[in-house]
């Protein structure tokens, strides 16, 4: 067998493998871009958790709390310069109409800066409260990655997804809309990176792995911070 034949065989195998990988990635993107539906469980959960990123998420959380779908509403990833009154005003709820129930039952978390942080911050708060179930509120395109992080951070907690659908991000015929397609490709890449993270961390040499999670270190100080 000549060297050219061997080379051509190797190139052909690489091309087939590359094409198979491309098809797999496209199929995965199509699955990822399929908008998840809200869980049909109508019973209340212990908590409602909203991930910041748009007033529609907070409004949905407030509506769920008002409907008795949870004992408390936890908002994760709030800017340090924002308080509950600011959130209520920006959402159009109005401070005067919320009565005392909003101020007694809505808790703001200030530590998270990304989805991994949302999961860690929420897990600590849930355990501090002694809760065992939550209804997760975030945008539909963010839900799959959020569920992955939350299920890893608190495997003992029952999580009920409640996606919201921002008007500016169309989920139907998304491939015809550049803004939505770009967002979904980016989110899909983040989802794959999140999926692969434990395997990558497992390959790191001893002593060279990632730093311990701040959510696992000094739980008492973190819990105190959440009560601010």
Elements, N to C (H/E): HEHEHHEHEHEHH
Biggest sheet strand order reads: 3-2-1-4-5
Kindly state the percentage of residues in helix.
Answer: 40-55%
Oligomer: single chain
Q: How many domains make up the coordinates?
A: 1
Summing up helix and strand content along with how strands pair, one would put the structural category as: alpha/beta
Given this structure, which CATH class is correct? Alpha Beta
Main sheet properties: 5 strands, parallel
- SS element count, helices: 8
Which CATH architecture?
A: 3-Layer(aba) Sandwich
Q: Provide the low-confidence segments as ranges.
A: 210-228
Q: Bin the strand percentage.
A: 5-15%
